[in-house]
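Re: weekly structure request thread

Next one in the queue (180 aa):
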Amino acid sequence: MSELTLPSSLRDVELVKSVRTPAELRYQYTAGGATTRFLTGIAQKKILGERCPICGKVYVPPRGSCPSDGVPTREQVDLPHKGTLTSFCIVNVQFYGQAMEVPYTSGLILLDGADLPLMHLLQEVNVDDVHIGMRVEAVWVDDDKIGPTLESIRYFRPNGEPDAEVHQPGEQGWGALADG
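Done, posted below.
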């Protein structure tokens, strides 16, 4: 291991070896137009994406512009509340203040009609049974608890549909990308 060289003002200071929790970070988030439209839709139990007028891709949650074409995405797309699990992570580590019992699963869900997956929790399924291609559906909070937050979708669960084929990035090779 190489030797660490500190500035002279820090040479006699004790190094940080750990951080005690709870740690807290307070911030305020101001949503832009696209995020406001998305969260307003969530409060009405709608999942709204936005379509790029050039490439036609649908982004959810929308950011207001297409990252590929750099143009505004103003066309709203009402997406179904179901999709395909494209990637997942089984969480086995407990953290301070965690309400979820471990292990639990977080996954990327490609909603039907969308081109970018949405990250959310998976429940009502044993972690050993979670797999790429699994068809899932949104489970919403009770109507009296719904609001303009992604937490209004409690989680996603398997919906019983047959698995979908999922193509992973790079699966077709560089030639397929160059050929369009």
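The first strand starts at residue 47 and ends at 51. Residues 33-42 form the longest helix (10 residues).
Next request, please.
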